[in-house]
Amino acid sequence: MPLKTSHLISSINPLLRNFLTSSTNPRSQLLPGLLFAALWASASVATKFGVESAHPLWLANVRFLIAGTGMLVFAYGIQKNTPLPKGVEWGRLTIFALLNTTIYLGLFVLAMREVSAGVGSLSTATNPLFISLISAVWLRRPLRWQEMAGLALGMVGVCVATYPLLGDAQASVRGLLIMLGSMLSVSVATVYYARFEWRLPPLVINGWQVFLGGLLLLPATVVFAPFEPERFNQTFWLAVFWLVVPVSVVALQLWFYLVRQDTVKASLWLFLCPIFGFAYAALFTGEPITAYTVAGTGFVLAGLWLGRK
């Protein structure tokens, strides 16, 4: 039975209140964190509209090249004394772009053809659990039972929320597996980014990684995605605009700011993405909020809370 958005929010309000008032989130992160979560969660709905018009890979490539070019033009054409990447920085930027843009967002747009916008946002919220797992493997530290249990709860939550959608053709197993691959890629990218002291300003890092990510994706787009200019309609360009400005520029700048403050604390703002995501999906695409939605979201948030321990 569909539930109102207010029911979803009220059912997890105590956990959110504890999260927002926790000592792990200083006041300096409150407004940027909230704004990041609200904008980042909107990407699923915008992508859903975009892939209904044109092939997902063309949506991704147009978005990356416009966003990257715009940020680089601003950084080097308007701002003064902006440094260029040097030496090893080019390699780091290319690897980061491959993980954080080409693979992550390339797979994400492909998955959004086969899963609902709400599930897309819910899957994004599992990133902290994958980040915890990947950082444990990368740093060769013992993996705590809370981390494993949290990851298991998160995956159960996504499955529960998705279960009724499989029968309604709003999600597919293949789409969920593609989404899983995208989540793993962005989690690796986050840990990789945090390993280095970056000399470059966040805008420059963001501009180059988005632009390079678009270039790396372009060969696959040309080979596998049919070019149909007539499908680049008003809906497509509105989706591109939203994905470029509020998401690729504003949200990622906020994300880099939060990661520079504290990588683990930054990942906790993804707690809020499912709440915003399901609200957007219900409002703009008419996706129902059901008991499965509430239960699945509860499992994911419980997993995040346990993993945080």
Taken from the alpha-carbon principal axes, the silhouette is globular
| Largest sheet data | none
Tally of domains? 1
**In percent terms, what proportion of residues is strand?**
under 5%
Helix-and-strand structural type: mainly alpha
Measured distance between first and last alpha carbons: 34 Å
Low-pLDDT runs of 5+ residues are 1-25
In helices, the fraction of residues equals over 70%
What is the β-strand count?
0
Question: Rounded to an integer, what's the Rg over CA atoms?
Answer: 19 Å
Arithmetic mean pLDDT: 84
The H/E string reads HHHHHHHHHHHHHH
Total helical elements: 14
Structure description:
The structure is a single chain. The protein has 309 residues and is mainly α. The chain has one domain (5-308). 78% of the residues lie in helices and 0% in strands. It contains 14 helices and no strands. The chain has helices spanning 5-11, 13-20, 27-51, 56-78, 88-111, 117-124, 127-139, 145-167, 173-194, 202-224, 234-261, 263-267, 273-285, 291-308. Helix 10 crosses helix 11 (234-261). Residues 1-25 have low confidence and may be disordered.
